[in-house]
């Protein structure tokens, strides 16, 4: 019997360590910064786990004459419902979004690794 207890104790330790490492990785801020552009979309998505997802059009890229520039779209997630409500007020307007990039997002956090934490309207 002591062998079974020892194996169960080790197994429990491995599980607890694995969960702790996963939570640390998913909550660690890898980078933070700002991005500017036109807020084009904000939606609440998901079949079971609803998350706020958005798109920021950062403008055209390229300088080939007589061609239309390709828009660069940045996809982001929002964890906080209050922040999502604030962002909805700025849809279709130029804004600067402050964000944090996580190493890996859990499914209930959002679809991207970029999480908006602040917004400022560009005048």
Description:
The model has no long low-confidence stretch (mean pLDDT 86). The protein has helices at 2-27, 81-88, and strands spanning 29-45, 51-61, 70-78, 94-102, 114-121. The protein has one domain (29-121): Beta Barrel (OB fold (Dihydrolipoamide Acetyltransferase, E2P)), CATH 2.40.50. It contains two helices and five strands; from the N terminus they run H-E-E-E-H-E-E. It is α+β, with helices and mostly antiparallel strands.
Strands, count: 5
Query: Which range does the strand content fall in?
Result: 35-45%
The CATH architecture term is: Beta Barrel
Strand order of the largest sheet: 3-2-1-4-5
* Helix-strand sequence: HEEEHEE
Largest sheet: 5 strands, antiparallel
Distance between the first and last residues' Cα: 72 Å
Helix residue percentage: 25-40%
Number of domains: 1
What is the average of the pLDDT values? 86
Structural class by secondary-structure content: alpha+beta
**CATH-defined superfamily:** Nucleic acid-binding proteins
Number of helices: 2
* CATH fold group: OB fold (Dihydrolipoamide Acetyltransferase, E2P)
The shape is elongated
State the CATH class: Mainly Beta
Question: Taking Cα atoms only, what radius of gyration do you get, to the nearest Å?
Answer: 20 Å
Give the uncertain stretches in residue-range form. none
